[in-house]
Amino acid sequence: MSGVSEVAQIVSGELWHIENDAALVAAMGKVSIRWAAVDRWMMDILTIALGDQAEAAKIMLDTKNAGRRRLMNFDAAIERSDLGAPYQRHLIELSRRFQDLLSARNEIVHTPLVTSLEMRDSAFAFVTEKLGRGGKREKLSIAAIEKHLTDVWDVLSELQDVRGGLSMHVLNSLSPPEDYRDPA
Known about the structure:
The chain is mainly alpha-helical. The chain has 6 helices and 3 strands. A hairpin with a 2-residue loop joins strand 1 and strand 2 (123-131).
């Protein structure tokens, strides 16, 4: 950038107002973090299900820009695993619930944002809006983003429970090595 620090760069007023809306930035950041946890925890489950961390990582992390396809690949891997029907059904059901939430995630993350001035109590205030199809502006609702976060968390917490149960199942099935000496 020819020696100009990022702080000294001039940005549009519109971008500045959006990036300085702490509640909006926090909510959108949490959306990214929660969906990254979905990928991570599904990868952990696939590592257990397939017994192959590299294959699990390939399924969950090597498919770029393809949230729905990644979830479908997860389903296919779970179906061919040896986890057993109850685990398979539950995991595929959780994956389908994530698929149902994916459109809302994509809208939150990818919809362009614009600002405008609005008169409030005899003073101007910046309002952030979503720019939808056909250029239609809609109010941006942080409450709607927070609802999405809650919806994702509800499914994610169930996924975490399954992940923990599978981990315990694997740990309980392990036997100590033949040369292990119990210190007791």
